[in-house]
Amino acid sequence: MKKTVFPLLLFLAAFALSCNDDAPAQKKTFRPVRMEEVSYKRELIYNPSGQVIEVVSESQMPDKDVITTVQEFEYNGEGKIVSSNLDYKRHYQYTWKNDKIVKTEEFENGVPLNRFTFSYHSNGLIKEMLTYKYENGSATQVGKVTYAFDPSGNISSVKEFSFKDSAYSLESIHEYDRYDNMPSVDSHFGFHTLNTGMQLHKNNPGRMVSRNKNGIAFSIEDYVYEYDVNGFVKKRESTITFLHIGSTGSYETHYFFEPL
Fold first, then answer.
1. Under a CB-based contact definition with an 8 Å cutoff, are residues 2 and 222 in contact?
2. How far apart, in Å, are the Cα atoms of 258 and each of 181, 201, 234, 236, 254?
3. Buried b (16+ CB within 10 A) or exposed e, 147-181
4. Per-residue tens of pLDDT for the chain, all 260 residues
């Protein structure tokens, strides 16, 4: 399965309660440090101020070779990520407005590749992303992604569209449901390179259904979580069923936090 490295922002402080029968509850602060799968690992590197300055990912190929990917982040004086570099080839510049990223420019070896612009619902959750591709020095729109949320603030659907000849065409739909009421593990580890502050999950979904442009489901992902004593996800088992060929496979993801 292909993996993508995502940067971190706005979810470094997570809190849990620790108590016993003889002493009052004391608040502890934790931060995410690592996630692991059978052939994949991602580690977060912090500076003394507690900001993530690097995400280091290792992917093991079928021939046992290990590919390491490093993404570095630069912050401004307000603590916002203003740029990131991926393996010294891809560069991202972020434009902020009212504490939200409204534009991201993507470059490769200094050459502009893509532009992404963002709009938001009145409650601050992401509403839409427009995608532009640079051609002959100008940016031409090629697609968009729309986001819908349930009343609890959890993503319910993500729709992807292509754009051509002044018209949008639906390409795929991803639907989420069966949420629990526990803190989302994706809010710590599900980094979004194009929009580092984007929050899609408040809690943890139990299922994602992917559909094609005709609304026909082609895959279903079911999730089962295990939590530690502080309420953080320590393991997620993902089971993926590809409906068009009738095959099913499962894998585990392990998450690690450290107290501050």
1. no
2. 22, 22, 12, 18, 14
3. bebeeebbbbbbbbbebeeeeeeeeebbbbeebee
4. 334 433 333 333 332 323 334 444 455 789 999 999 999 999 999 999 999 999 999 999 988 899 999 999 999 999 999 999 998 899 999 999 989 999 999 999 999 999 999 999 999 999 999 999 999 889 999 999 999 999 999 999 999 999 999 999 999 999 999 999 999 999 888 778 999 889 999 999 999 999 999 999 999 999 999 999 999 999 999 999 999 888 999 999 999 999 98
**168 HSE (CA, 13 A, CB side):** 12
Question: Which residue, chain included where needed, has tokens 């593990």?
Answer: 185
pTM for this structure?
Answer: 0.85
